[in-house]
Amino acid sequence: DDDRARSAHALPRLGAMGGLLATLRCSNVGGAADVMECIRHRDAETLGAILRARPSLARRSLFCGMGFSALHYACAAASANGGSSAVVCCLLAAGARPGARDARGRTPLMLAARAGDAEVARVLMATRRANTRALDGCARSCVHYAAAAGRAEAVALLLDPEALRMSGDEGLIPPNLVPDTRGFSSWIDARSEGGVTALHLAALGGHVETLWILLASGAEPTCTTYGDLAVLFSPNPSTGDYLMLSGSTPAHYAVMGISDVRAAQCLRLLVSAGGQLDAPHDDGRAG
Description:
Layout: H1 2-10, H2 32-40, H3 44-53, H4 70-76, H5 85-93, H6 108-115, H7 118-126, H8 142-148, H9 152-158, H10 161-167, H11 198-205, H12 208-216, E1 229-232, E2 242-245, H13 250-255, H14 260-272
Antiparallel strand pairs: 1-2
């Protein structure tokens, strides 16, 4: 097709850029596999050349029927060490949609938050089209994703008033948060399926710094889960999801963590913020 022909003609002009591009064959240049390879190697220069020839790749789903775009992939492949912002900027310049959702309702910002790359998250929010307040198919926000993975810097960014103003989501800025029907703010204490909050997730993972940031930002330490069982997702797909009893507080989640030392630290923080160690589950059993 015309896009592929333009890609092939663009190759010789790249000259000394070499690197990854030297391994690509003209017959396959500009495909989704090449875009993914550039993203994995954080090769923004080569990616830019491919997208100039085939800009539609910036908006196309990489996997048929999954809605997982190149921008989703770049954000998922990012890391807390940074280095992916140039690739993300390249995709955005080519027309990638920062508020796009995949088949599970996830946005690129959710994946960047889970990866812990605060710079990529900042770039997405600066577009004012990242849909900061979006929820995935299980009603989890980008703050849930960051907290579950213990990404303290990303959590701090997502709760930062200036960053929220920059993103166009002034309505999320304290003290202008509108309480939900349970009395908790609709942002920092937003509840996913079963009533799980970001604070629950940080406590379960023993993410002390993330927990501290949430509490310092006004997260409610006594909020409880509801329903027969609260399904709690794990940031590590290999570990599977967790099932927790209804009526569980973040303190209940903390004692279920893998580290006794971190659990003790989390419990001290929760108690200092008003949490209770003897609060029972809905069935009357104490945690």
